[in-house]
Amino acid sequence: MASNSNSKELEINERIRDKEVRLIGADGQQMGVMSPRDALRLAQERDLDLVKVAPQAKPPVCKILDYGKYRFEMQKKEKEARKNQKVVELKEIRLSLNIDTNDFNTKVNQALKFLQQGHKVKVSIRFRGREMAHTNLGIDVEKRFAEALEGKAVIDKQPKLEGRSMMMFLSPSPNK
């Protein structure tokens, strides 16, 4: 079982060592301030657990509940929250120095599709052989690519040569 940080932090039953705690019953009703021993006894009478839900409060707040069920509910909520997070992927578009106009436009349209889906795009050019002598042409191709996507993408990282590859990073324009 994967232990989440939330269940690790919660103190239950005999682990609660405060002088006094504010108790909330299983039905959500305030039961007042008392010693943890008395609160634990009340919880055990109902076959439930005493769980410290707000340790930073003065006095700490404890609640009578079924800890196993509570942990299950918390894990379910965390799983739901993770499911609703948008994962931004990095998509790569590879260009070449002597790319044809139609190929170029196809790559621009592909990048546009990725950007509309909310993904970041890495535009790369691989220099082969004597092409290394003409890295300035690679910068021109990548700049032209960025201009073709103007208004729809912003440049995160300007074209930069790393080894035999030149890379530029684009992300979706915020004013869509």
From TrEMBL:
UniProt subcellular location:
Cytoplasm
Swiss-Prot/TrEMBL keywords: Cytoplasm, Initiation factor, Protein biosynthesis
Q: Which residue range or ranges hold the Translation initiation factor 3 C-terminal domain?
A: 88-172
Could you tell me which InterPro entries the record lists for this protein? T_IF-3_C_sf, T_IF-3_N_sf, Translation_initiation_fac3_CS, Translation_initiation_fac_3, Translation_initiation_fac_3_C, Translation_initiation_fac_3_N
Does the keyword field hold Cell cycle? no
Translation initiation factor 3 N-terminal domain residues are 12-81
Q: Which GO terms describe its molecular function?
A: translation initiation factor activity
Q: What does this protein do?
A: IF-3 binds to the 30S ribosomal subunit and shifts the equilibrium between 70S ribosomes and their 50S and 30S subunits in favor of the free subunits, thus enhancing the availability of 30S subunits on which protein synthesis initiation begins.
Which family is annotated?
Answer: Belongs to the IF-3 family.
Q: How does this chain assemble? A: Monomer.
Name the chain's protein: Translation initiation factor IF-3
Report which gene this protein is encoded by.
Answer: infC
